[in-house]
């Protein structure tokens, strides 16, 4: 059985053994979706680093994911981002000015036909060149890098780790749990 202790932010796991004994474990719950307080960026700082490099919609999504708030505590919208950008004197995003086509991690995974976690693994290993303008900002991967030989070799290693019946497992709709 699992019970939650909100005051201590713990999960209490009680295991009932066949012989009638019980074991209680307390496991700290991870606070997911929280941007670390010591690294929470200021909206002006984010705008100075990312403004003009991305469209206002993408900036609003990124700032909300970073848990940035407006001075009155509201979430960011494209209108609010545009107003702050204009107040700071930052030019709007110009798609014609981008020199290198970059794609997101999700798009990279789709193009390479691997999962997002494997893309992050390739980034950590240094196989896939990627940049992040600031912590928690989306990774930017040059589209041309997907055709390089080191990336292709890294993808081959990942695909080789897949089970032999990978295609069959992808078709199954319901997960199978052992013992059930």
In short:
This protein is 36% helix and 12% strand. It has helices spanning 43-50, 56-65, 78-88, 105-112, 116-124, 149-160, 166-171, and strands spanning 2-5, 10-16, 22-28, 102-103, 141-142. The strands form two sheets. The protein has a three-stranded antiparallel sheet with strand order 1-2-3, with no helix packed on it. A two-stranded antiparallel sheet has the order 4-5.
Describe the 3D structure.
With 180 residues, the chain is an alpha+beta fold. It folds into three domains: 1-30, no CATH class; 37-96, no CATH class; 102-160. The chain has helices at residues 43-50, 56-65, 78-88, 105-112, 116-124, 149-160, 166-171, and strands at 2-5, 10-16, 22-28, 102-103, 141-142. The protein has a three-stranded antiparallel sheet, with no helix packed on it. Strand 2 and strand 3 form a beta hairpin. Helix 4 (105-112) crosses helix 5 (116-124). The longest helix has 12 residues, at 149-160. The chain is flat and about 70 Å long. The two termini are 17 Å apart.
